[in-house]
Amino acid sequence: MDISSLAGIVLALVAFMLGVGANIGDMIDPTSIFITVVGSIGATLIAHPKDKSFKIVNIMMSAIKNPTIDNLGTLRTLYSFAEKARRDGMIALEEDIPSIDDEFIKDGLRAAVDGTDPEEIRKILEIKMELFEEDDGANAAVLDSWGAFAPAFGMIGTLVGLVLLLKTLNDPTTLGPKMSVALITTLYGALVANIFALPMAEKLKKRTSKFVNQKRMSMEGILSIVQGENPRLMEEKLKAFLSAEERKAYEAEKGENA
């Protein structure tokens, strides 16, 4: 579970409730919630294919999860494979392939062991990366759409409220309450977009970028192994994909092992 996502949602809601104060009850209107939330989700279903839009709840849940992106583990694995391939030949890696959890590395090494040309391996892995990025990007696009439609449906709710308000202009005592209800849908639209949909979409985009970086590092490592590069040279190349913190941790680990 990604604690920063949960903390952010809680802080945003607390900030809103503190701003409203004791009038929180006046901010709750089921009809306006229905127009804004259900209406904007309906528009999102129209905008995206069912294999993505029907999973909007799952996509939201995935945004608050915290999947492991173990760049250090990937580097250690590839370095050990590079040493083994240099010592015993590429075919020696065949026995390690079934134990690899990462399907991307597994596919790349399987192609390498089969004697596939390095350029062909690069093309295969780049296509896999593009497909992964496109699929993950589609999840973020669903939330982006919801974030765009929610304020629009808030405005629609406000217009509906104003039309109903104009029909009762002969009764001035109802103007204030009805105007308040009319405007509240705009508020709901802004809350849905800025507390849930858009921040979650941004989180998914950043996460996708990190996964793609890990896959690119894996691809470069596999190509180095296929081309018979010195494991130390491959290690230095792959360290360029690490963040400053990861690089520091890896170098400290290597120093302890020396």
From TrEMBL:
Entry's Gene Ontology BP terms: bacterial-type flagellum-dependent swarming motility; chemotaxis
GO CC terms: plasma membrane
Domain MotA/TolQ/ExbB proton channel: 99-216
Keywords associated with the record: Cell membrane, Membrane, Transmembrane, Transmembrane helix, Transport
Entry coiled-coil feature ranges: none
Bilayer disposition of the protein: Multi-pass membrane protein
Family from the record: Belongs to the MotA family.
The protein, known as: Motility protein A
Organism: Tepiditoga spiralis
